[in-house]
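Why does residue order matter? Because the sequence determines the fold. Keep that principle in mind as you read this record.
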Amino acid sequence: MTLSLAFKMVIRPFGDSALLIDIDAGSTDASSDIVMALNAQLSQQRTRGITQTTPSYNSLLVCFEPEQVQHSDLQAKIHAIADTINIEDISKGNQWSLPACFDGSYALDCVALETELSQDWQSIVDCFCAAEYRVHAVGFLPGFTYLGNLPDALHCYRLRDPRATVPASSIAIAGTQAGIYPFDSPGGWRIIGRLPFTVFQAQADQPALFQVNDRIRFEAVTPEVFKELEQRPIASLIKQATRR
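Structure:
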């Protein structure tokens, strides 16, 4: 069964050795489905000359070797694939249930968010944990995880003055998105909690823990449980948190 979604696709050069494909299918999730299906087909067909693909919310960056394939030939190939992509080509990724602490020093912006969102903190946490999030992109920092499907009631402004340091594994929200910081870094998103393990390991075969199209839910734990989880081996926590 081919995808019945109508969508618009624009392909444009992105430097001398890359193409940027923009997809508009009417919504973020629908556009992401098309991006994922197209990315899967390019990978499965091992299209000549392509060296790397990077999917995002509604775009796909395709890097290639100019010595092996020309812009025009690759664009024609991509258009041909787009005409035949199948809904079964869309990988659902892993499903995650992540323990997180939203108390005290782990929720740096709890007071400001209570004021901006006109909700008490427990209501904010309950609303955040009730949703299932989709990984739409991984980037900005290596392993930074962009999450879609943030509930409307939690949409908020970024900080006017970004922090010099956001702690590693912090969970944040800003605008219509949520995100997870992979390591200590500057940042302007609102920090609402933290995971008890790292989401980026530079020496691992797959350094970024989460991949595009994974689904994530968060489970609130107490500070006492959080500290106990921090002492466990990362591998055991990851195994417990994920399922296909």
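The two ends are 23 Å apart (CA to CA).
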